[in-house]
Every structure is written in C-alpha cells, then in structure tokens.
Design a protein that fits this description.
Elements: E1 2-7, H1 12-23, E2 27-33, E3 56-57, H2 60-63, E4 69-72, H3 79-89, E5 93-95, H4 102-111, E6 116-119, H5 125-141, E7 146-153, H6 163-175, H7 180-183, E8 184-186, E9 200-206, E10 212-219, E11 224-231, H8 235-248, E12 254-256, H9 258-261
Parallel strand pairs: 1-2, 1-4, 2-3, 4-5, 5-6, 6-12, 7-9, 8-9
Antiparallel strand pairs: 7-10, 10-11
Bound molecules: NADP nicotinamide-adenine-dinucleotide phosphate.
The site of NADP nicotinamide-adenine-dinucleotide phosphate has 28 residues, from helix 1.
C-alpha cells in the first residue's frame, strides 16, 4: 500500500485523484494540500463523497509526513515550493500541473538531483500514444506538410496552449530534427502574412466544460491527415497519474516522463 500526498486537492483534478484512490487497492491518502487562501482548509479532503479522514492543509512539509509519493495538480506558481518540500522529505513527485515557467522547471531539475520527478502535462494513455503517432507522421510526411496543433479546453483553464499541445509540438519538431522554439507560431491576428515554411502553428479554443481535445493536422497539397484525441472524463488523467505514482516509487533520482511509464 502506498501513501499518497495530493497537491491541489480541492481542484477538479485533485478530487478526481481522490476518486481514483478510492477505486484503487494500492493507495491511501497521506496528505491533502491546497493554497493558504483555500476556503477548504481544515475540512475533509473529499468534497463530494465519503470522507477519507485527511484534512485539507496548507502545510506542505507536514502533509508529506509518512508519504511514499506525491502528485501535483495545483497551480504553476506553487510547484517550486512543492518540489523543494518533496526533495527535502525524499518523497518522489509526479507533476501534472501545466503552464510551468522556467523558475518551476529549474526547481524540478534541482529536486530531481535528490528524488525521482516525473513531469507529465498529460497523464492519459491515449495522448501519449498520440505523441508517438504525431512524431511518426511528421517523419513519414516530411517538411512539405504544414503542421497545425488545435486544442480545446474548459473555460477555467489558465494556461494556453495546453502543456499537451506544447509537448506534441516538441515531439514533432524533434522528429523533424529541430526545436519547437525555432518553429512555433502561437495564434494569428491581423495580417500575419504567409505561413513560414516549417512552422508549427497552434490554435486554442476555450469554452464550457470541455475536458481536453487535441488535434494534430498535417496539411499537404491535395491531402491532409488529422490525428485527434478527445478526453471526455478527467478520470483518465487521474488514473494515469496514479499509474505514474506507482511506477515512480523506488526509482533513482532524475527527471522522467509519462512515456517512461506507459508501454505505448
Ligand atoms: N497532467 C494532466 O493530465 C492534467 C489534466 C488536467 C489538468 N491538468 C493541470 O492540472 C492543474 C490543475 O487543474 P484543475 O483543473 O484541477 O485546476 P483547479 O480546479 O483550478 O484546481 C487547482 C488546485 O490548486 C490549488 N492551488 C491553487 N493555488 C495554489 C497554491 N499557490 N498552492 C497550493 N495549491 C494551490 C487549488 O486550491 P485552493 O484554491 O482551494 O487553494 C486547487 O486545489 C492545471 O495546471 C491543469 O492544466 C493536468
């Protein structure tokens, strides 16, 4: 049995992770963390089901006591503190939070010198397979096909494009022998002019309760290929996060990816 600390426990994903823990025979809740401003501090971590007996806390270090692994679905700004606390407590960490800025990435690299850290902007099996398929298509179709990545999410999502869209772009750029930073084109407005050769374009849709959709479009002259993944239930991310959490326990310090976990 593994004891799990959940960062961002009061959020949509935090609650889905607790449901996945209830479904699983392998995990118990060790700690439940929200922000110091959370309206839920002190209450049971489960907001919409049978209580789990662990209260919501903003004390990150105390919430890691007795934990064998932690998962983070909180806010990008909170990730450096969570990473430092996990490194100090020697608790491996799965980071599902997206929109990570250089400071957070640096904090994760630093933590990864002491603990195993898995950064997973998308924990679904299907999206990780999509990443492989997109890289294969990019290699097979070559640079004459224009690549556009279109993603859609619910109205509350804070970052754009999604971490998954960016990861897809990185995989495609790498498959073409380049780096995304050299080819990314984020949104178009006014008179952006003709499409630069080799660009990887991003388009973002936000609305309603869309859980997460990603399409990679390869547009050539006279034909196109569209690869689409649609998540309709965020439990796919929660179950994937628990799979990653089970996998990372006992791993050597270092940075890992979801592709290391999933046999796809
Ligand atoms: N990897 C994946 O597969 C995947 C899938 C879906 C979403 N995500 C990502 O996961 C993250 C959370 O998404 P969500 O939809 O669950 O968001 P959400 O519903 O807004 O929940 C955010 C959670 O973070 C907590 N929080 C906010 N600021 C914090 C801080 N400074 N310190 C500690 N906790 C803080 C919130 O707690 P209080 O407000 O109660 O303090 C809440 O529990 C986002 O980055 C999202 O893009 C990843």
């Amino acid at each position: 049995m593994r004891a799990l600390t959940v960062f961002g426990v009061t959020g949509r994903m935090g609650q889905a992770v607790l449901r996945a823990v209830r479904e699983s025979d392998d995990f118990v809740v060790a700690g439940a963390v929200a922000s110091a401003a959370s309206a839920r501090l002190g209450g049971d971590a489960v907001l919409d089901g049978p209580p789990c007996g662990t209260p919501v806390s903003a004390d990150v270090a105390a919430s890691l006591a007795g934990a064998s692994v932690a998962v983070d679905f909180s806010a990008a700004a909170a990730v450096p503190d969570h990473a430092a606390a996990c490194a100090a407590a020697l608790v491996p960490l799965v980071v599902g939070t997206t929109g990570l800025e250089p400071r957070a990435l640096e904090a994760l690299r630093e933590a990864a010198t002491r603990i195993a850290v898995l950064v997973a902007p998308n924990t679904s099996v299907g999206v990780n397979l999509l990443e492989r398929l997109a890289a294969l298509a990019a290699r097979g179709l070559g640079p004459t096909f224009d690549v556009e990545i279109i993603e859609a999410h619910h109205r509350s999502k804070r970052d754009a494009p999604s971490g998954t869209a960016i990861r897809l772009g990185e995989a495609i750029a790498a498959a073409r022998g380049g780096r995304l930073a050299e080819h990314a084109q984020y949104g178009r407005h006014g008179e952006p002019g003709p499409r630069p050769p080799g660009a990887i374009g991003f388009a973002v849709v936000r609305g309603g309760d869309i859980v997460g959709e990603h399409t990679v479009l390869f547009a050539g002259d006279g034909e196109r290929i569209e690869l689409t993944h649609r998540a309709t239930d965020r439990m796919v991310f929660a179950r994937g996060a628990l799979r990653a959490a089970a996998w990372i326990v006992g791993r050597a310090p270092g940075l890992y990816r979801m592709q290391d976990v999933l046999d796809v």
